[in-house]
Amino acid sequence: ANNEDHPVLFGGALFCQGRELWITNCSFFKNRAFFAGGIYIIESQVELLNSIIMECTGVSRGGGMFSHSSELEIANCEFNGNTSERAGGLYVYTNGETEIHHSTFASNFGISTAG
Fold first, then answer.
1. What is the number of other CB atoms lying within 10 angstroms of the CB of residue 50?
2. CB 49 within 8 A of CB 78
3. Is the pLDDT at 74 greater than 80, yes or no?
4. Strand-strand pairing, 104-106 and 20-24
5. Which run of H or E residues covers position 17?
């Protein structure tokens, strides 16, 4: 997915609310949004497997991905070169459980908080 020319408010490539979602073997590249350049999930159950989130930009939170009140499992994924005001790679907010296994976070940049 790529929307670098037409940024949106939530989730430049993917927005998921109140659903179960399995994302496998996908690439999210150079997407932009105000919240979560790549993927924005809220009140959902999401598995992100064998995927790449790269060079995405979230203006406010979560350059690569933003998880709000969700159950999130990430395995064998790469978050690389993502940028945001807060949390370049992954921003996890409020309730919900997040598990990360065998994944790489590299060269992500958060302007006021961690990359």
1. 13
2. no
3. yes
4. unpaired
5. strand 14-17
Question: Which two three-digit tokens encode residue 109?
Answer: 């940049």
Closest among 113, 100, 98 to 74, alpha carbons compared: 100
> Whole-angstrom Cα distance, residue 62 to residue 46?
16
Tokens 């790449």 -> residue = 52
Mind listing the pLDDT tens digit for each residue in 44-67?
999 999 999 999 999 999 999 999
Distance CA(112)–CA(114), nearest Å, equals 7
Look at residue 114 and tell me if it is in a domain. no
Please state the length of the chain.
Answer: 115
> What is the rounded CA–CA span in Å between residue 54 and residue 70?
22
Domain extent at residue 98: 8-103
In the chain, the amino acid numbered 16 is C
User: How many domains is the chain built from?
Assistant: 1
In a domain, 113, yes or no: no
Residue 6 is predicted with a pLDDT of: 53
